Amino acid sequence: MKRLFISCALLSLLAGCASNDIIDPHGYDQTGVASYYGAKHHGKRTASGEAFNQHSLTAAHRQLPFGTRVMVTNLKNAKSCVVRINDRGPHTRGRLIDVSREAAERLGMLGSGTARVRIQALDD
């Protein structure tokens, strides 16, 4: 019984450490590094269940709710676009958001693969 209790306690602790709690997007305004994903993932299912389309304006974020629309602005060239969160990620440390190839093209970051961006949630 004691082993069961200790095992449950450890699992609860680990689950708490690994949680990706969904946050309230109202007022969300963060700066960080964006990357993009494209052809390799085209047609595969996103975490929201829809197929990924590299030609749509979508993005992956760890905590924003699916369906949240955010304005992404490239801080180097001031180009921006609105994307809809439909996936979870990025899965690389130090990245804030993964945008679709179409969004990356509009942001002017295809050549570099990453860009320092500002992300602002839009109220619908």
From TrEMBL:
| EC number(s) recorded for this UniProt protein | 4.2.2.-
Top-level EC class, please?
lyase
Record-linked InterPro entries: RlpA, RlpA-like_DPBB, RlpA-like_sf, RplA
Membrane-protein topology: Lipid-anchor
Provide the alphabetized UniProt keywords: Cell membrane, Cell wall biogenesis/degradation, Lipoprotein, Lyase, Membrane, Palmitate, Signal
PROSITE patterns on file? PROKAR_LIPOPROTEIN
Pfam families in the record: DPBB_1
The cellular location(s) given in this protein's UniProt record come to: Cell membrane
What is the first-listed, main subcellular location in coarse terms? membrane
Which region is the signal sequence? 1-20
Residue ranges of every copy of the RlpA-like protein double-psi beta-barrel domain listed in the record = 30-119
Q: Does the keyword Kinase apply?
A: no
Its job: Lytic transglycosylase with a strong preference for naked glycan strands that lack stem peptides.
Q: So what family is this one in? A: Belongs to the RlpA family.
Q: What is this protein called?
A: Endolytic peptidoglycan transglycosylase RlpA
Q: Which organism is it from?
A: Pseudomonas monsensis
Its lineage opens with: Bacteria, Pseudomonadati, Pseudomonadota, Gammaproteobacteria, Pseudomonadales
